[in-house]
Amino acid sequence: MKKYFNLLKYELKTIYRDYFQVVMIIFPFIILLMAIYLFPLIIDSLAVSPEVVKYVIILLVIMLMSFGVFLIGAMGSFLLLEHKDEKTINTIAVTPLGVNGYLRFKIVYVYCFALISILIVLIGLKLFAKDYYVINGVSIFDNLTYTMMIAHSLVAALVAPALSLLQATFANNKIEGFAIMKFSSMIAMAPMIMVMDTFRGKLQYVLGVFPNFWAIKAIVNVIYPNNDPSNMSFYLYLFFGVILSFLVLTLCYRMFKKKVIY
C-alpha cells in the first residue's frame, strides 16, 4: 500500500506542471459557474411553451452529467497516452508497482477526479441554483437528496476510467487521441436522446448499452418523475449501471494492456 501512497504524493506534487491534470481540477468549477449563471439566462430567454422549457432543463441536466464524466475520462486518456508516446510502459513494468499496479492506480486516480467533479456540480446546483431549474412550479432538485447524489456519483464516475482506457487503447499518440475523443463524445452524450418519446417504456432499455445511461436515467426519473410502469427504482438503475460499467472497464483494461505491452 505504501508504494501507492508514494505514487499519489508524486502525482499531487506534479499536478501544476501537467496541463491535463490542471484542467481536471478546474473543469467542475467552470461547469458549475456556467450552470449557475449562464444556463439560467438561457432558460429565461426562451420565449417558448412551458413544455419546451421542461425538455430544455432536463437536457441541460443530462448534458452536465454526461459531459463532465466524458471530459475527465478524456483528460485521463491523455495521461495514459504520454506513456505510449514515450514508450515507458516497459520501464514501469520493472518498478515495484508493475504495469498492473500502475494501471490500477491510474484507474482509481481518474475515478476519484470524476467522482469529486460530479459531486461538486450536483451539490453546487442544489445549494446555489435550484430555484432556476423549475418544472411545473417545482424545483427539480427538491426530490434529489444528498444520499442520491452520492450514490449516483459513485456509479456515474465509473465511466470515466473506462473512457480513458478505451481512448488510450485505439490512439497511438495525443493527436489521434483528440480525434478519437470527438467520436467517443457522441457515445458519451447518447443518453440525451432518452427524453424522446420513442425511448419511453420498455424501449428505454435499448440505450442500456451505454454504461452512462443507467446512472443518468436514475437521476432523470427523480428530477422529473413519471408513472411509466417500465421504469425501475432509483437504486436498481444504479445496480445495473455498476454491473455494466465494471464489465466495460474490465474489457477496456485488458484491451489497453494487450495493446501497450510490447
Could you give the count of β-strands? 2
Order of helices and strands: HHHHHEEHHHHH
Strand content: under 5%
Strand order of the largest sheet: 1-2
Shape: globular
Low-confidence residue ranges? none
Give the radius of gyration: 19 Å
Overview of this protein structure:
This protein has 262 residues and is mainly alpha-helical. It has helices spanning 2-13, 19-45, 50-86, 89-93, 98-128, 146-156, 159-170, 174-189, 211-223, 234-260; strands at residues 134-135, 138-139. Strands 1-2 form a two-stranded antiparallel sheet. Strand 1 and strand 2 (138-139) form a beta hairpin. The longest helix has 37 residues, at 50-86. The radius of gyration is 19 Å and the shape is globular. The chain starts with a helix and ends with a helix. 34% of the residues are buried. The model has no long low-confidence stretch (mean pLDDT 84).
Structural topology:
Layout: H1 2-13, H2 19-45, H3 50-86, H4 89-93, H5 98-128, E1 134-135, E2 138-139, H6 146-156, H7 159-170, H8 174-189, H9 211-223, H10 234-260
Antiparallel strand pairs: 1-2
Helix pairs in contact: 2-3, 2-5, 3-5, 3-7, 3-8, 3-9, 5-6, 5-7, 6-9, 6-10, 7-8, 7-10, 9-10
